[in-house]
Each structure stands twice: as structure tokens, then as C-alpha cells.
Amino acid sequence: MHEYSIVQSLLDSCEENALKNNAKKVTKVVVKIGVMSGVEPELLRTAFETFKEKTLCEEAEFIINIQQIVIKCNKCLREAVLKSTEYCCPTCKDTDIDILDGEDMYLMQLELE
Predict the structure, then answer these.
(1) Which of 6, 51, 57, 100 has its CA 20 to 30 A from that of 13?
(2) Using alpha carbons only, what angle is made at residue 63 by residues 59 and 65, rounded to the nearest 5 degrees?
(3) CA 56, CA 14: separation in Å to the nearest integer?
(4) Which pLDDT tens digit goes with each residue over 65-95?
(5) 101 vs 4, 33, 50, 104, CA distance in Å?
(6) Which secondary structure element, helix H or strand E, spans residue 57, and what is its range?
């Protein structure tokens, strides 16, 4: 489960940001997980809840926002959110697309005290 190593990096980033801002604790952590990121949201949540003990994030609320796949078609130049894993433009059905979002995980927001 690579979610455990992801959570360790996430907790390290949270603590680093908290210390840079002279915060005593982190009260909220918001992440965005793309559906193609390979990260399982519930495993990530479980890992966060397990490993946050005895850190500045111990009392933090953990919010996960799921990012769908956003594409841009190179034929008709439209952007769209894919509703399924059919990697083609929903407008013109061409497969020459670029993926704009939905492949990564990002730390979006921290609330500190």
C-alpha cells in the first residue's frame, strides 16, 4: 500500500508548513485526488487517521476532493470531463486528446492555529 508513504510525505509537508508559519497545530488538511492518480481515497483516509497521532495534524480534519478526468480534444479543441474511462472526446469521439487534470494528488489547503 503506497498510501502509507504518501501520507508520511503529506504529514511531513503539513508539519513543515506549520513550522514555517509558527503554528502550533494543523486543524484542516484538504487534498485533491485524481481518479487516475492510483491513490485509493479510503485507504489514504485510513492511513492519515492512523499516522496523524502525535503530530501537529493530530486533531486535523481530513477532506478529500475527487478530481474527475478533464481532457482537451486536439481535433475539436473542446475541454470536457470524462464520465467513464473511454479516452475519447465526448463531442467528436476523436481519441487525440490531452489529459488536463485527474492524474495527480495535490495538497490544496491547510488551516493552521
Answers:
(1) 100
(2) 170
(3) 8
(4) 999 999 999 999 999 999 877 889 999 999 9
(5) 23, 10, 29, 7
(6) none
**pTM of the full predicted structure?**
0.88
Please give the Cα distance from 66 to 102 (Å, whole number): 8
- Please give the angle made by the CA atoms of 18, 20 and 26, to the nearest 5 degrees: 5
Exposure of 15 by Cβ count < 10 A (0-12 exposed, 13-18 middle, 19+ buried)?
middle
CB half-sphere exposure, 101, CA atoms < 13 A: 11
Helix, strand and coil percent figures for the chain, each rounded to 5: 25, 30, 40
pLDDT tens per residue, range 15-53: 999 999 999 999 999 999 999 999 999 999 999 999 999
